[in-house]
Amino acid sequence: VSHVAVHKIVKGLTPKFKEKINAEVAFKAELADENLQQINSVNEVISEATKHLIFFQNAALTNQKRANEMLKTAKTISDIEAHSRITARNKETILGKEPQTIINNNNTQQNQKPELDLSGLSNDELETLDAILSKAN
Q1: CB-side exposure of 59: number of CA atoms within 13 Å?
Q2: In the chain, where are the structural domains located?
């Protein structure tokens, strides 16, 4: 596909779609240099990934619609809190995690220090471990 043909195709589209189409054309042009088996493999992987993504997005939208209907008849604060949790989870499924959420999750994982069970060690082993840790600090 020539650049002229691409420009004719994307002429009336919004800039958002122009960028996506240009990216897709560039990707396919790059892929065209590969053999047919590799092209088919890449297309199959993309198709599977897209199929799963769409499935989970549709499921999240269905869950949200049901949660919204249930909210109309909510009678307790726990019903409202459940709706809030469902909405947050569905938002994350559809839109992805917000950068701050990703940072907080990473920080939490980094700050968790494993607990060591030293109860089975002899006094000699504990003294050796203490000496090693003292040198490390």
Answers
A1: 9
A2: 3-101
> What are the C-alpha distances in Å from 59 to residues 63, 93, 96?
6, 9, 15
Contacting residues for 67 by C-beta, under 8 A, at least 6 apart: 82, 83, 86, 87, 90
DSSP 3-state of 2: coil
Residue among 52, 70, 62, 69 nearest 90 (CA) = 62
Amino acid letter at 76?
T
Burial track 39-57 (b if 16+ CB lie within 10 A, e otherwise): eeeeeeeeeeeeeeeeeee
113 in helix, strand or coil? coil
Residues 43-102: pLDDT tens digits? 899 888 888 888 988 999 999 999 999 999 999 999 999 999 999 988 888 877 775 655
